[in-house]
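To close the section, here is one more complete example, presented without commentary so you can practise reading it yourself. The ligand is nicotinamide-adenine-dinucleotide.
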Amino acid sequence: MDDNYITGYCVLGDCNKAWCHHCYPVKDCKEKHQICIKEGMCEDYNIKYNEYYKNHDTLYDLEDDNGDNENGDNDNKIIVTGCAGFIGSHLCEKLCQMGYNVIGIDNINDYYDVNVKQANLNHLKKYENFLFLKEDICDTQSIEKYKPISVIHLASMAGVRNSIENPEIYEKVNCGGFLNILQQCVKNNISKILYASSSSVYGLNEKVPFEETDLISKCNSPYAVSKYCMEMYAKTYNQLYNLKTIGFRFFTVYGPRGRPDMAPYKFLYNIKNGIPIDKYGDGSSSRDYTYVDDIVNGIISALKNDKINCEVYNLGNSSPVTLNTFIEICEKVCNKEAIINNKPNQLGDVPKTYACIDKAKRDLNYNPTTDLFTGLTNAFNSL
Ligand SMILES: NC(=O)c1ccc[n+]([C@@H]2O[C@H](COP(=O)([O-])OP(=O)(O)OC[C@H]3O[C@@H](n4cnc5c(N)ncnc54)[C@H](O)[C@@H]3O)[C@@H](O)[C@H]2O)c1
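Output:
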């Protein structure tokens, strides 16, 4: 049996096989295939899919229009957007291990190497209770189709520096895409949405540690503005429609299968391979690096908490280190000296991030346990 049957269709969207939900039976079938018997499905696909899955009781019956699984059990279905990304793939893996039926949405954009996202998806394929949909959050209708108990919305255009170059796409995807997801949640009576904001919203704030009650008025990039806009939308939809919303201000997340555009991955990879690293500024800027498993635990704790109505939480490590110290720790992990390219500070950078995590500790029992050396060693071992 072809590996692609695990998720029901190919993730590249170009296999052109008759059973592939993505490539062959398309929503707007321009070829007017006779076998495209209903939107997004074809006869051949359904027969083969059902043949394969009839002995797998944890999987969904995609034929069922209301999206229920074969047992009619709708109680543990979660939609995770951004599932092929760094945090999303770790979160999906943990949710699958916990027995949730996870429907992952991602458009596999090329902001960074798509092979990295493909590898993340390959990792998730081994879970029978994971289903991948290659879709865009700006127009997905899958919330209506699958009617999950909750949506965890992580898909976004990430990257502060790129947002300075290409601000429009951040507005479109982060604000517009989130709006579509919120609208779908309301229309389909979804009770709760969790979403990724960012520590970037604190921008140039000087007072540390950053607290959720601090005034947000010094965002320093279009990315930060788009994340704050998401928080405003979430609050508004809670007021208007009683949709429960929980936002997370993540602080520089790192770990195995890390994002290749971020310093932790780039530094470890470059030092290991004798490639110079770019050091921006004098090395006194600081970041509150947070290990991905700690982040995932925080998200899952919020998912399980039904008392929270509309809140935003810092998910950080609450122990920032300077760039100079960070480079030294990377060198220790790699057991090799870094070759450093000194560069001036970049537009959009902020001098420091530092999370106060008292609120998350109190409400979510959030307790980050991974120190930087251990976490970076795990990341290094996954390179
Ligand atoms: N990693 C961090 O340190 C960090 C810090 C603060 C906030 N965040 C936020 O956490 C979330 C996850 O971050 P990550 O580091 O895993 O980033 P990531 O880029 O690895 O993951 C985001 C995923 O969303 C997908 N995506 C983007 N636009 C999409 C669209 N229009 N439709 C469907 N999918 C789309 C991408 O293909 C990608 O796989 C993001 O919202 C990010 O802004 C991350």
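Once you have examined the tokens, check your reading against these statements. The chain has twelve helices and 13 strands. Residues 57 and 71 are 8 Å apart (CA to CA).
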